[in-house]
Amino acid sequence: MEKPKSSEKHRALLALALLVPIPSLGTWAGLVGGQGEPWGKAVYAIAKGWILVLPLVWLMVVERQRPRWPRFKTDGMVWGVVSGAAIFAIIMGAYLTFARNWIDPGFVSEQIEKVELGTPLRYVGFAVYVCVVNALLEEYVWRWFVATRCEKLMKRWVAVVASALLFTLHHVIALGVYFPDWRVTALSSLGIFIGGATWSWLYIRYRNIYAAYVSHVFADIAIFVIGYWLAFGGAGA
Fold this sequence. Notes:
This protein has 237 residues and is mostly helical. The protein has 9 helices and no strands.
């Protein structure tokens, strides 16, 4: 890989500064400072829009490239499936063996009600959206945009770790809202970091957003299965 020029590094640093804090701000506004308030919902929505639009604007205005959706390819797909299945097994195993004893299902149900997902149909519909659409959008933002900017600033393995840490930050805020027990927040944050590092490695290694996406979907499915058990009862509740 050709060594980035100083100007490229400055641009990469600016791009990260403009994007990385925004999800944490939006999550805090929507779930903590302004939960249930119009301004909180507005800030959350604006933050979501910002992190989706900024990479495209950056690509066209700063890097002067035409945006195009990446074509589907199979590079790294086997590792995407294998890593995703492993992550799924780890999440389910950790929950079923000990983590479920740390979580109050009633509290989780209350939080799900607050965000208007308190029926199985709404919950499953939201889960499908997150797995099919949101996971792909997160790969576009955090792997294609953030991980590659980190790569311009540091060695590849450091970029993998750094991008995973940045990806984890806003999730910690949400986890603290839904799971007051610090052990659940800490364990889940570790899991998100490991997932983020895995998906960054897949993208940087194969330059294939779909390999990372497939792995990501396995993790989201596991999380929503556990959430369903907690909110509506089930084998793992």
